[in-house]
Each structure stands twice: as structure tokens, then as C-alpha cells.
Amino acid sequence: MARRLVMTLLNTPPGNAAAPIAQAAVAAALAAEVTVVFTGESGRIAINGVAAGEDSADGTGRSLHDVIRDAVEAGVEFRVCSPALARFGDDLIPEISEVVGAAWLMSQVLEPDTVTLTY
């Protein structure tokens, strides 16, 4: 079984992002090394205020940012692709550990022990 998971959120609007982020937290709890990468249109989620202003849609009244914080506590790492900063600005939520580019993403997803999911 692969122990690394890269989840790329590309076209996921903030209102639909809680489910894949919660899945990332579950994978981390199962001892997988998990990275969520915000890119494309989903890069907005990494911008301060966007996730905080979005309901998690799980019936708890919590925000998407709360779900992201929980995922970080579970061991998930969050990154954002650099083109998203050009589109949406660079005021990032503190949970973003790194700004990455296409070369980083490709180097990760091409590893044989890595499973990649795209949303």
C-alpha cells in the first residue's frame, strides 16, 4: 500500500472543499504522508479570509478554515502553486507550508509510492 498521498484541488470551489480536506485528514490519521495542493481556481482557498468565510457544509457550523486546521493537526501539509498567487494575491493562511511550482508537483506525483487524487 502506498504511504504517500498527494491531493490536488484544482477546480474545487471553496464550498465543496471540506470533503476532500476531511478525507486528507483521515488518510493522515491512517499514517499516510499527505499533502494537499491548492492550484488553479482552488488556489483561492489558500488566501486569507476565503476559507474562514466558507461554511464547512458538514452541519457543524464550522468554517472551511476550521476543517483545514483540523487536517493540519492530523498531519496534513498544505501547499499552494505559485500561479495562484499571481491570480489571487499572496496573503496566505498560516497553514500553507510552502509555495510550490509545477516541477515540485510533478516530482511528487511521479514517485512510485505515491497515490494522487485530483479534485
Mind explaining what this structure looks like?
By secondary structure, the chain is α/β, with parallel strands linked by helices. The protein has one domain (4-118): Hypothetical Protein Ychn, Chain: A. It is built from four helices and five strands. It has helices at 18-29, 64-74, 82-88, 102-109; strands at residues 4-9, 33-38, 77-81, 96-100, 114-118. A five-stranded parallel β-sheet has the order 4-3-2-1-5. Helix 1 packs parallel to helix 2 (64-74). The chain starts with a strand and ends with a strand.
Walk me through the topology.
Blueprint: E1 4-9, H1 18-29, E2 33-38, H2 64-74, E3 77-81, H3 82-88, E4 96-100, H4 102-109, E5 114-118
Parallel strand pairs: 1-2, 1-5, 2-3, 3-4
Biggest pleated sheet: 5 strands, parallel
Q: What is the CATH fold-level name?
A: Hypothetical Protein Ychn, Chain: A
What is the count of DSSP helices, taking H or I runs of 4+ residues? 4
**What is the general shape?**
globular
Structural class: alpha/beta
- The whole-number mean of residue pLDDT values reads 96
Strand order of the largest sheet: 4-3-2-1-5
CATH architecture: 3-Layer(aba) Sandwich
Distance between the termini: 22 Å
Q: Count the beta strands.
A: 5
Radius of gyration: 13 Å
Strand proportion, as a percent range, falls in 15-25%
Order of helices and strands: EHEHEHEHE
CATH superfamily: DsrEFH-like
Task: Summarize this structure briefly.
This protein is of the alpha/beta class and 119 residues long. The chain has helices at 18-29, 64-74, 82-88, 102-109; strands at 4-9, 33-38, 77-81, 96-100, 114-118. The chain has one domain (4-118): Hypothetical Protein Ychn, Chain: A (3-Layer(aba) Sandwich).
